[in-house]
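stage 2 :: seqdesign
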């Protein structure tokens, strides 16, 4: 709010929660834009000049299939009373990319079947080629997300659960609903009917490595410059009044940090000399911290008031009597004391003003340690601590989750891709993509927090998709030499992989226009994952398999 002479920015302890709850609504209108883009891209990329062989309806059904998967996954979990947190709102954008990737793989495999074969035979051949490849990527994506359910962060658990279940439904609809749509479309093709009018077309008418080192060097440099923690103002929408508040706070009061509440949780005989010494010692310990500017405590002010007016507060009766008078004169302290019905003090609080000369993590840990050392039972609290708490575990938890997921992905690859060397390179691709994403997201101004951690867990699954497709196609190729296998794999899956990557990027690109930091972060990381995953799948993996696969014993 402002006037000609005064400008005021404001915030309350509930402001961030209220603003946080507005974030999902800020991207609802983007869903329709995203799905319109996805349908348009799918139809254009599957369009053929041949009015019989074109796959327009299959492309449209592929987008519908992913929409059904999201509705089914979300509906099931909501029926089971699973909490829907704000971060889950980004799931539909991710599921759309996965579903379209599966669709493009299936269409590519269908296109390679013999047009003279019956529809059941063509569909069987399609599933023979596509089923294992799609199953590998679904397993890796779902496992990576379900592993994220072990995270200590509720927002991460909710996102991973909703996304993992939706991916399972996406797989189910791809092999059932989408397969049925392809069969109906195949029947139309077999009867030589127009894709739109379904009228029969007359037979006589035509149907009408240094770069790798450079990439890793930049990525590793970025990893060492990765910041931990979440800037609280990023949780609010760009147009929120809180942004102005935090900007003004940083501009005019940058030297100060949180005004932290310290609650005395136990009843005390505040009039007793020994209890007074204990409380004074506790307050002095807080004030001696190098990041504490001072304290505001009703107890200290009351003692000063009593000394200045020569009041005796050494007995319970006199203490309570004079305290009542003191609170009438100093109403700001009324809410700092919790009285029982018989006018005894059940609990009280005081405030510690901290400075910005220490990290928020060190400040929070230091205050808690000081409270634990006090002989009085204390509780240290500030609304921002719910976000600062992640600093203490975010790095270790992220590394642990990523390492476990990589090991699981390697196990899945070894089971479903009958080649140790291919499985090794798939695992290498996962690690390389993760390093690249972490490094480049740091260079792009994204810190490691619970929001980016969600996306990193998701990226583990995404990073394996393209490499697994190419590796499996390489192993299953009938060609005898490694060069022929690589060429055959790229010829069979290069275009559908490119289609899947572009559709995923188009599915999330609208999020870059979001007014929420959370959804912009989602876009940045998905963009990096898809870009690096595509680069590894179409460039690194074929080259490495060709170079190291020359030792024919591996295949």
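stage 2 :: out
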């Amino acid at each position: 709010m402002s006037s000609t002479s005064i400008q005021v920015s404001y915030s309350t302890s509930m402001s961030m929660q209220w603003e946080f709850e507005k974030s999902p609504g800020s991207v609802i209108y983007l869903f329709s834009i995203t799905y319109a883009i996805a349908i348009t891209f799918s139809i254009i990329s599957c369009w053929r000049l041949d009015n019989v062989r074109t796959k327009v309806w299959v492309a449209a059904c592929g987008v519908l299939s992913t929409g059904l998967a999201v509705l089914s996954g979300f509906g099931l979990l909501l029926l089971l009373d699973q909490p829907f947190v704000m971060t889950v709102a980004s799931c539909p954008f991710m599921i759309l990319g996965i579903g379209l990737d599966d669709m493009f793989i299936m269409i590519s495999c269908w296109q390679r079947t013999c047009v003279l074969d019956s529809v059941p035979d063509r569909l069987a051949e399609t599933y023979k080629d596509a089923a294992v490849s799609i199953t590998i990527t679904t397993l890796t994506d779902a496992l990576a997300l379900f592993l994220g359910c072990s995270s200590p962060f509720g927002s991460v658990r909710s996102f991973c659960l909703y996304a993992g279940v939706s991916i399972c439904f996406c797989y189910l609809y791809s092999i059932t609903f989408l397969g049925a749509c392809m069969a109906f479309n195949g029947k139309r093709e077999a009867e030589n009917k127009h894709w739109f009018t379904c009228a029969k077309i007359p037979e006589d008418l035509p149907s009408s490595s240094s770069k790798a080192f450079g990439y890793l060097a930049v990525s590793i440099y970025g990893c060492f410059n990765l910041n931990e923690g979440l800037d609280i103002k990023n949780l609010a929408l760009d147009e929120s009044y809180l942004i102005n508040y935090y900007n003004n706070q940083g501009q005019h009061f940058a030297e100060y940090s949180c005004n932290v509440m310290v609650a005395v949780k136990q009843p005390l005989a505040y009039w007793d000399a020994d209890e007074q010494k204990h409380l004074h010692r506790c307050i002095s310990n807080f004030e001696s911290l190098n990041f504490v500017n001072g304290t505001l405590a009703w107890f200290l002010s009351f003692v000063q008031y009593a000394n200045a007016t020569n009041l005796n507060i050494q007995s319970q009766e006199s203490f309570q009597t004079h305290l009542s008078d003191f609170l009438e004169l100093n109403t700001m302290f009324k809410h700092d004391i919790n009285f029982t019905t018989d006018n005894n003090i059940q609990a009280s609080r005081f405030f510690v003003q901290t400075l910005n000369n220490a990290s928020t993590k060190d400040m929070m840990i230091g205050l808690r340690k000081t409270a634990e050392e006090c002989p009085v039972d204390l509780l240290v609290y500030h609304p921002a601590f719910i976000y600062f708490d992640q600093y203490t575990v975010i790095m270790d938890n992220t590394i642990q989750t990523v390492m476990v997921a990589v090991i699981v992905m390697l196990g899945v690859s070894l089971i479903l891709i009958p080649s140790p060397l291919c499985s090794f390179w798939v695992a290498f691709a996962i690690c390389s993509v993760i390093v690249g994403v972490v490094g480049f997201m740091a260079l792009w101004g994204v810190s490691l927090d619970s929001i980016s951690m969600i996306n990193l867990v998701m990226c583990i699954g995404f990073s394996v998709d393209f490499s697994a497709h190419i590796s499996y196609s390489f192993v299953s190729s009938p060609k005898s030499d490694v060069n022929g296998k690589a060429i055959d794999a790229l010829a069979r899956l290069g275009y559908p992989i490119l289609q899947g990557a572009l559709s995923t990027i188009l599915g999330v690109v609208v999020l870059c226009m979001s007014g929420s930091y959370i959804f912009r972060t989602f876009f940045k990381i998905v963009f990096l994952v898809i870009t690096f995953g595509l680069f590894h799948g179409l460039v690194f993996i074929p080259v490495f398999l060709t170079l190291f696969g020359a030792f024919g014993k591996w295949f």
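stage 3 :: structure notes
- Confidence is low (pLDDT under 50) at residues 204-208, 551-555.
- Residues 17-208+213-236+393-554 form a domain with the Multidrug efflux transporter AcrB transmembrane fold fold (CATH 1.20.1640.10).
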